[in-house]
Structures are given as C-alpha cells and as structure tokens.
Amino acid sequence: MASTSTLIYDVFLSFRGEDTRNSFTDHLYKALHEAGIRTFRDSEEIREGQELKPEIERSITESKASIIVFSENFANSRWCLDELWLILEQKRKRGNFVLPLFYGVDPSDVKNQRGSFRIEAKNKVKGSKWTPMKVNCWNQRGSLVIEDSKWTEDNVQRWKAALTEAANLKGMVVSGLITLYSSMIPSLQFTTSLPISMASTSTLIYDVFLSFRGEDTRNSFTDHLYKALHEAGIRTFRDAEEIREGQELKPEIERSITESKASIIVFSENFANSRWCLDELWLILEQKRKRGNFVLPLFYGVDPSDVKNQRGSFRIEAKNKVKGSKWKLLKVNCWNQRGSLVIEDSKWTEDNVQRWKAALTEAANLKGMVVSG
Known about the structure:
This is TIR domain-containing protein. The chain is of the alpha/beta class.
C-alpha cells in the first residue's frame, strides 16, 4: 500500500444514497462483508464531524478495488461524479480493479449521457476559476436544475468523460443478488488480494489459476465460474482452455501456477482421487508460502471438515509399501460416495500421500466458501 493509514479497504463502494442505500447497496455491502471483503461505504465509516470529501478521497486511494453502482439519480450528485473521476484516476495510476454495476439503468445511457445521465453546463460566468453555473440533470421525472459553484464547465466535461470511460469497462446489469453472488463476489475476492505488479515477465501470466476435478464440475459449476471471472476481466487459467494437444500437462500446469497471482481450488467429490489435483493443490500452497499468493478454496457439494480430516471421498491411505524404492509402488485407497476405489500408481508414494493429506488440511483451514451452484 502507498499509505500507512489504518483506513485501508479491499473495496470502495460508490453509490447514490437516495436510490439504493436501504435496498440493493445495503444487501451488496452485507454480501461483501460476509465474504470477508473489507468494504468502505460512507454511512458505515464516516463519523459525525468529519469532512466528507477528504475522507472519501483517502478511502478511494487506499482501496484496492472499487464498485460503482450506477442508478437513476447517480449523475445528479457531484459527490458521486467526483468519486467516479477519482476511482478512474486510481485505475489509470495504479491499475486498480473497477467494476461498474448498472442498477435499473441502461449502460448506453451512462456511456452517452442520455436520460438521467444527461448533464449540461449552462449560464457560464466568464473570468472565474470556480464558475457559478446552472447545470441541467435529467431524471425520469423531468428536468432538475442544480446550482453549485463546483459545477464548472471543466468539471462537467471530465465527469462526462468519466461516465463514458466507466460504461466502457466490463460490468454487470443487475437487479438483485442472484447474479451478484454467483459472479461478482468470487471475482472481487481474488482481485482485491492480487498485487498490482507482476513478479514474472513470462508471457504465460494469469491473475487466477483454477484447480478442479474435471469429471465433477468441468461442464457445470467450474464452467460458469470461469465465464464469470472472464467477464470480470480476470485472466484465468484452466487446462481445457490453455493446454494445446501435444503439450505435456504437468510442466505447463506447474508454470501456470507459479505465474498466477491467485488460485481457486474447487473441492468436489472426486478431487482426492486424482494425483494431478493433489499435486496442483500442493504447488498452489507452496506458492502461497513462498510468495504470499491468495488462495480461495470453494467446497462444491462437499463438507469442508471432510477435506480437513480426510474423511469420506477425501480419505486416502497408502498401503502395500515396497521397501528400498524411491518411487514405491503402492495401492492407495480413495473412498468416494459409491464405495472404495483402489488406485495403483507409482507416484502414490507414502511421502506424497502424507504431503497431500497435509495440503488438504491446510487448504481446508483457509477462509473459503461452501457453494452449491
């Protein structure tokens, strides 16, 4: 962080209070809070007696990401428009993540300043830095005339440019929390934990490495999650998309893990039956220990306590050890809900099984999410 202040947030939440404070924005704030994302909103953080503008400016500059909730009366407020401009300035300067949400408004109206987003500076008084102006802001109830010394022609032009810039970003048209929770919350958890600069200069660099058991979730949950991350502008690696025919799987996956800034691990019923999944898990946690990478475990249709304690389908035991061999041939029992599955593989050594079990416990102790859709 550039600042050493204690006012440091993951997300700055910009919204028009009269439109959404006690409805959508309140639910959004609670959803972010429950997901462990430290979020600034003025009603929660600014105490009586503090000046609003400096506090908001500081909160924007000390947040890693911003959500802008565009609603009907957003453009009637110079506070909202100033916040918007400052948020985009941080995006340009530091590469901050910005997600526009269009709540009950058309993104094209924001982009082209039509309807309630139409603002025009009028009655300019020449020769003054802060020119008194009448600025017309249109909403669905007709024309609203606002007189404010800060509504200068220069400010109005930069606000209009900011509205266009924000509307051109990848965002979401929302009307409730179903879309929000399934798509935006996971994206923000990863994004707000990513460093601004990359450690690697390789061309194979991702924001997120997605680890999952293909037979369980490739064509269902993981596919939807990948699309949500992609739509949020988060560069995500998943093997089906990135590995070409003829390439060796393991080196490519190892490189992708080491060159990603964060990882998502989708634990599902048959995850522990795959040594590829278990090796990915161990490498992901190794990157967390070495570089402080962000890791988010998702428990899809499984109990986190079963992952933690290697019960049920996550129970693995090495048996029939052959002494005197570096790569010992073992029979490893992996239990799933359909009974006991015996896997024979020369890589299922006793040492590997022990480190995989430790990795399962470590991952299950991280802050994660139980998901079902």
